[in-house]
Amino acid sequence: MEFSKHNIFSKIADSDNYFIVNPLSGNADVLEPHEAKAFKEQSSDNLSEFIEKGYLVDLQKEEQLFKSKYLDFIDDRDEDEVQLFFTPWYACNFNCSYCFQDEYTNPNETVKNEVIDAFFKYVDHQFAHRRKYITIFGGEPLLNNAVKKESIERIISEANKRELDIAVVTNGYNLIDFIEALKKGRIREIQVTVDGTQEVHDARRMLRGGKGSFERISDGIDALLKNQIPVNLRMIIDKENVHNLPDFARYAIAKGWTKSPLFKTALGRNYELHHCQTNNKRLFSRIEMYQEIYKIIKENPETLEFHKPAFSISKFIFENGELPNPLFDSCTGTKTEWAFDYTGKIYSCTATVGNEGDELGTFYPEIQLNEEKIEEWEERDVLSITECSNCAVRLACGGGCTAIAKNRTGKINSPDCRPVQELLELGIGLYSEINI
Fold first, then answer.
1. pTM
2. Rounded CA gap, 151 and 39, in Å?
3. What's the Cα-to-Cα distance from 326 to each of 123, 276, 423, rounded to whole Å?
């Protein structure tokens, strides 16, 4: 027997113990130092258990299992719900310090009714037999003027006719002004970005002209929850605001947000997208960000009431008592995600929408699809990326984000590597100490 190609084996952070995780077999264990030594030397009395759990394998049989689970993954993905992003304009009322859309052409235009109608006609035809929902994206979609508000109401109305859920990605400044319109829709969630407590947030996410935005956003979140509209609060993290996380967590707890079943959170890394963040010293690498968050939570465990970081698949393991299914592809673009904008163009995802050269076709004024480019996106996974072929963590990483990989290398079939082993070291170390 040989060691599985998919064993992720390492020492747990701040512990003498080790872990072994195998995303293909779906097993994970914590090993004491003597057990870890015996495993590495294959001298354990428990070799039969290691074989049963897929840590020691016949490599040919493992390859057969790999192929079988890959086919299961493709079948399951073909049945997954599709998220369809619609960008009615790229205009925005904010002047965020890290905006990645500031290089885009942002004319003060409003989406035409015929474009909205063409979008829904395309959805009706192209995704007729798929479960799906619409996410309204920007720019900032909730701009409070009469014409733009009417466009948002039209999108909601058209979604209602088709019994489609709506999500909205917003900076949150005009939430109060849109409550009545949102109440008319089948709202799945409103994603709102808040980057910390008032002083920190207002220094990063201000209106054009410099006025702060925190108080109105906070009031808007209150209004959403009061009206039973789900909130996904997203905090964008970099070196400038990461240490504000505990204070912001305490603010959200004091507001009562974290007690609501309609409230959830996400931490996003401020990262290198297109031109804007190149060589920016405030940026964390992925592992640097989570190393810092790990330290913060160890010192301020109440932060976990606000947010429990994934640390790759660590949180999933401890919350579910099992591993997730093997991840052969972490990129949803053109598979279970598409993006459309008010100019009639079609893109793969939110990371490419509006970016010149990343168009995959049009839905207005006529339907035209670049099938060759679409096929290249659709076929990208850990089997098509050469660098992934012998990587032990590939079934927990899935090859990463296609858009980031393409921006970095110029190639779609290149990896956006995730520090899975290092994240597991931190996550297993953290969550093995607490009951989550």
1. 0.94
2. 62
3. 30, 34, 17
